[in-house]
Amino acid sequence: MLTLVLGGARSGKSALAERLTLSAAGDAPPLYVATAEAFDDEMRDRIARHRADRGTGWRTVEAPADPAAAIAAAAEAGAVLLDCLTIWAATLMHLERDPDTETARLVAAARDLGRPVVMVANEVGLGIVPDNALARRFRDVAGRMNQQVAAAADRVIFVAAGLPLVLKGPSFGAGEVAS
User: Fold this and answer.
1) What is the active site of this protein (predicted)?
2) Gap between the Cα atoms of 56 and 121, Å rounded
3) 8-42, pLDDT tens digit by residue?
4) Most buried pick, 31, 103, 116, 174, via CB within 10 A?
5) Is the pTM of this model over 0.85?
């Protein structure tokens, strides 16, 4: 099952995605596929806080440029969490790689894994229109990526103020913690 969890910054999407992944993993350890890179002290601190919040039961793979390969190699994981598609979109733009092709590779890897995969993304289309071409291009790339993953996903959840709204697929099942 592929689940996409969307929301704004600080909406609670990552915390929900972690709970869903832990619930889906069963007795096998979950895998956290990280797309962020620590280019400065603030990002290093942010990554450290995320790791501390997750606790010790997770295996983490840093895959900023190729999360599809990390997912394809995750056969031993009970479930996989990829956080976050939006940061990965920025990396793809920087590397001048085609986001549509790379997103198709990512979705295929998730489908082929045969284990639950949860992906997190920022919903970037609810704000004002950016005032410069690069920011508008980023918004467009991230929006298309979200649409591509959502179309392939079995379940899509939108999170606002820590509250989840299922947009597509099954509601929360027994054992899943929605909020």
Assistant:
1) 50 (gmp-histidine intermediate)
2) 24
3) 988 999 999 999 999 999 999 999 999 988 778 88
4) 31
5) yes
74 is in an annotated binding site: no
**DSSP three-state, residue 140:** helix
Residue 161, by phi and psi: left (phi above 0), alpha (psi -120 to 50) or beta?
Answer: left
Half-sphere exposure of 16 toward its Cβ, with a 13 Å CA cutoff?
27
Strands 2-7 and 117-122, sheet pairing: parallel
CA dihedral 158, 34, 80, 89 (to 10 degrees): 50
Establish whether 169 is an annotated binding residue.
no
Enter the DSSP assignment of 116: -
Query: Which residues are tagged catalytic?
Result: 50
Question: What domains are there in the chain, each with its CATH number?
Answer: 2-168 (3.40.50.300)
**Of the candidates 175, 159, 158, the residue with the CA atom closest to the CA atom of residue 167:** 158
Question: Hey, what are 30's tokens?
Answer: 């979950």
Q: Answer yes or no: is 154 a known binding residue.
A: no
Please give the C-alpha separations between residue 117 and each of 71, 101, 154, 161, 174, in angstroms, as whole numbers.
9, 19, 10, 23, 18
Q: Which residues of 53-63 are buried (b: 16+ CB within 10 A; e: fewer)?
A: ebeeebebbeb
Bridge partners of 166, per DSSP, are 157
